[in-house]
Design brief:
This protein has about 280 residues and is mostly helical. About 70% of the residues lie in helices and about 0% in strands. The protein has a two-stranded antiparallel sheet. The protein is globular and about 70 Å long.
Length: about 280
């Protein structure tokens, strides 16, 4: 029998409502400011009523790409760079991590455990420790201001390798034995059995890795010196680099709203698979 506690339920709902308001209010401020003029958005206090310049502001940032005295590429270009980078990083991380985990679990070779723990130890190394030698390699290979330079150094993932390895260890050995008896090779076993079984894990990791790639700032700051290769994070920072007097905050807020849409849509559309991939034990 479930005991009903109206006061406790009311308190829980109030806490949830307050939490939602605290998270949603800054987003509302950004959305409102993106519909106002530059003077209205910079006023103190700013009006909380949406303005009438929605189409004008969003058309300006998507097409013209300028904020105050700072010349910027169109936001549509920066969104495209971020989208390509995030997709390549997410797909690359998942593909390489699955193959690595498959090798560690199903192949017997000397030093297997040593190599796995060498990969796992890289989790303890912050990006800042290896960013200088990584930049030197990318520069020597003439990959600055290219999609390859923005994505390849970020593709390897010890976390995803560890997660896929742990999942593959839970797959019954009978499946591998049955596939071997039927004449299936390692690649056939990987594609026909392990890949379908890992679908929820793949989709959950895809959400995490896509957002990771979309929000990159430090590495693109070094690997992209040409404005045409700026991702959206660097673009937003550049738009507010000229000081308050040179910033059109309505255009900056419009850019912020546009920058939130792709990862937000990914989370909303894949929420079911994301939660299932993290908590479902019967995969």
């Amino acid at each position: 029998m479930i005991e009903r506690r109206p006061l406790l339920d009311l308190f829980s709902h109030l806490v949830l409502i307050v939490g939602v308001l605290l998270v949603a209010f800054p987003l509302y401020i950004a959305l409102v400011a993106s519909t106002q003029t530059a003077e209205q958005a910079a006023a103190a206090p700013m009006s909380l009523i949406p303005g009438s310049h929605f189409l004008e502001n969003y058309s300006a940032v998507l097409g013209k790409g300028a904020s105050g005295n700072i010349s910027m590429p169109p936001v549509s270009r920066m969104l495209w760079v971020s989208l390509v980078s995030a997709l390549v990083i997410a797909v690359g991380k998942i593909s390489i991590s699955m193959l690595s985990a498959f090798a560690f679990v199903y192949f017997r070779f000397r030093g297997r455990s040593l190599f796995f723990w060498m990969i796992f130890v890289t989790l303890m190394l912050p990006v800042e420790v290896r960013i200088t030698p990584t930049y030197q390699v990318v520069s020597d290979l003439h990959m600055i201001n290219t999609y390859a330079g923005l994505t390849i150094p970020l593709i390897a993932s010890a976390t995803a390798t560890f997660l896929f390895r742990q999942f593959f260890l839970t797959v019954p050995d009978d499946l591998a034995e049955a596939a071997r008896i039927d004449g299936a090779g390692p690649l056939r076993f990987f594609m026909d059995i392990l890949w379908p079984l890992s679908r929820t894990n793949i989709l959950a990791l895809f959400v995490i890795m896509f957002i990771y790639g979309w929000n990159q700032y430090l590495w693109p700051l070094l690997a992209a010196t040409d404005q045409s290769m700026y991702p959206i994070g660097i673009g937003i920072k550049s738009m507010i680099a000229g000081g308050d007097a040179a910033v059109e905050w309505n255009l900056v807020m419009a850019t912020l709203v546009l920058a939130m849409l792709p990862p937000g849509l990914i989370v909303v559309l894949m929420q079911k698979w994301f939660v299932k991939g993290l908590v479902d034990v019967e995969k």
